[in-house]
């Protein structure tokens, strides 16, 4: 059975210890997983030198478990994981962080692997090599961009950030990015609470007050999906009410606490401007008024207006007028 070797190295303007710390934080695996690879993380135990990760990965039309065990390493230098169950006959992945100066290092991924099914499996060797090259180039580019972003934010210090809609396309990417930067992320949603997960129910006016205690910033992304079904009268009401009720509840509760966050970033949409043809639109562009507003304009204006309590309480309030968000994992 042939042993294949893959390696990709990138020199980055950061010390090796910074890269190591990034990899130890929650969200690192999510950030490194290419969006075109529909991988599900089922379980994580331990750390980079003694731990186990269980994934579900696509293999053609089926999905299969991939269990990787961390075999050891040296803090700030390297760590190794090995497949103990999965699609390869053998897979050993070494992650290296090699200093090339006081503030630079080489980020090196080395993989030794063997393909399953003997000679038949070897027929796919070129395809596997191309897939690895594409995936690892993505990993290196993402790490470089994330570290640069975290460096720009370093002066603010570690923040505690509350995020609603954290399970959505934007929310998942944002929470992983923040946590790998050393920030503490709290999630506000309807699921079972965990150490950093808190519950709310906007329709009933319920919000766990512990979620708001000591937060530096709030990113509000929650709202009924606009792509989930046909825009019937009932669905339109859900779209509008989910945004207005949740935003008003959150803004009101933030305004009422003594230790308020520095900023509330509340999602909105470019639809708030309505149809303007080729007109260049700025944040200062006046919005339409009157009884003939399009539905998307009505939603956008009511959505942004629901933050009034926070703004009146002196919280810096920013409407994020988001357009179409598209990735290989989907859109929103």
Overview of the structural elements:
The protein has eight helices and 16 strands. 23% of the residues are buried. The strands form three sheets. It has a seven-stranded antiparallel sheet with strand order 1-7-6-5-4-3-2. The two termini are 45 Å apart. The protein is globular. The protein has 332 residues and is α/β, with parallel strands linked by helices. Helix 6 (233-256) packs parallel to helix 7 (295-305). It has helices spanning 16-24, 28-32, 118-122, 125-153, 169-180, 233-256, 295-305, 308-312; strands spanning 4-12, 40-46, 51-59, 62-74, 78-85, 90-101, 104-114, 160-164, 184-189, 197-201, 206-207, 217-220, 263-269, 316-322, 326-327, 330-331.
List keywords for this structure.
single chain; 332 residues; alpha/beta; 7-stranded antiparallel sheet; 7-stranded mixed sheet; 30% helix
DSSP helix fraction: 25-40%
Number of DSSP E strands:
16
* Low-pLDDT residue intervals, each spanning 5 or more residues: none
Integer average pLDDT: 93
Give the strand order of the largest sheet, numbering strands 1, 2, ... along the chain: 1-7-6-5-4-3-2
What order do the helices and strands follow? EHHEEEEEEHHEHEEEEHEHHEEE
Query: In DSSP terms, counting alpha (H) and pi (I) runs of 4 or more, how many helices?
Result: 8
Per the principal axes of the C-alpha atoms, what is the gross shape? Answer: globular
Oligomer: single chain
